[in-house]
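User: My collaborator and I are trying to settle a disagreement about how two of our proteins should look. Neither of us wants to argue from intuition anymore, so we agreed to look at predicted structures for both before our next call. Could you fold the first one, then the second, and keep them clearly separated?

Assistant: That sounds like a sensible way to settle it. I'll keep them separate. The first protein:
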Amino acid sequence: MSHTVSIVIPNWNGKELLKKNLPAVLHAAEKLAVPFIETIVVDDGSTDRSDIFIKENFPAIQCLKLKTNKGFHQATNIGVQKSTGTIVILLNTDMEPHPDAFIHLIKHFDTPALFGVSGRIYADDKKTFLYGNRGAHFKWGHFYLSEKKESDTSQNLFVCGGAGAFSREKFLALDGFDTLFSPFYYEEQDISYRALKRGWDIHYEPESIMYHQIRGTIEKKMDATKIKYISARNNYLFVIKNITDPSYTLQVLLFIPLFLLKDLFTLRFRFWIAFCMAVPRLPKALIKRIKEQKHIRRNDKEILSCII
């Protein structure tokens, strides 16, 4: 099967990261033996003249300038919608790909049911393994993520939204990243879990290596404590939206109140804060839960039994 490739990079005030990492991105792109490849930077309302920098230094790259900051989810979705490749590689500005990273990602896409592929991610010291193949389990009404060994090629839970390759057709069929999880975290778990429920496949490719400057842009926006609360909030939203097995749903209804009570008696309020942050978004999560029911081909227990 002949594929074309689009590389989509959302950017918010990341001129210095672009300066550092775009040469590596273009070098990795040049090594792809495909009939067509394009690179699109979606400039999400930056004020650091990122768009001018790209036009002056990387004229072959398309720079899509958004007038206002729409956030990671919308900026990425807009970039994918504007792209034309059959495969879309999504990159954060703080990712530096190994020269062969893209080759190893796209080689999987002759499989018709493939939704996406993630690779092996190291810290920017190029020695410290960070993450790659993710697993998960469901317990006490909560969804717990886990990290597998870097060589483990068993079923992967999700495609990394900042360093992964996706079927453009399937990404758009799922309506892209859900803004329910804005401003960040759990959008990639959500779209990938929905893909798995539709019967599509997700692979982990350890030969595709990239180097990550951890939270190179997120920590510019807010402090670490708020980031933790947003992550916990989005865990609740993910569970309420996507975990539909009746016995698991019963666990959610039973254990979330118990966790809240435990926090109350121990004067630790993380679950309270996260849950209260989730409450205004619960109606949308429930509507989306119902909407997704008709597409389910695999149930929660089938998926979770494969990704432990």
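The second protein, kept apart from the first:
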Amino acid sequence: MQKVREAAARISCGNNLKQLGLATHNYVSASGVLPPMWGGPTPQYPSTQSQFGSLHFYLLPYLEGAGIMSAAGGNSASAGSKNQPVKFFLCPSDPTLLGNTYLDPTTGPWTPTDYAGNVWIFDFRGTGDLITAMPRGTSNTVMFSERYKECKTAGPSPTAGQTDSVWAAFPSVTPNPPNPTMTTPGGLNSVAGFGWNSFNGASGCNGCLGAGPYYPDYVGTVSVFQTTPGITACDYTGLQSGHTGVMLAGLGDGSVKAVNGGISAGTWGTACNPTLVVPLPKDW
């Protein structure tokens, strides 16, 4: 029975990733550009977008969430949207969902997401299209990955060693940067062009490609990514999947790939970095 439930959860999770990919393609078809990782209409946060919100927020109309976007009144962090669960954002295999609500002691409930966007594809302006964003090819580039809603590691303070993947929040809202992205904690504010502190005058992600911590191809301190770790055993610097032995990855063409947990760091990093126009190694 347990295996049957796991198989059903994996199918559901894979379908969610497919819907995210399809929503992205439909967004591009309608607007001519990719949605931003975070965007807003104000001069302080330059963007081609007309509303203040996150990648997941901009995809809502293509995921049966037009009503949530409308209720938000132009701001994804408003009470009208931030606590509304979106079924396509939640993987039933994530053991950390805990009622599907993240309770922030200062700002109240936020609904999470189990799917992280690749900030090298979704930059902060919502520019470019699928082809220009993935020069190696959409079928060979990771556009979305899985990430636990919550990952905690023991530390000196309640928020040390912790990520909370909150889809409606901006990097400055929760105690730690919310991570609906394939970057490590702190990276959103630490790397030029990535974070909240870099929005003013940021040029998207063209200037923030590199190696090491805070980048989408960073493999964490424990492994490339973890499969089925417990909430206190997860590596908060990396990515997590609730599926045994695999990470489900949404590719740029809208397909979903079950990536083996034994994949090499170099191969995973190449698959995540759209600027590396090279063939993917055999273990992909």
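Some points you might bring to the call about the second protein. Residues 138 and 252 are 4 Å apart (CA to CA). The first helix runs from residue 2 to 31.
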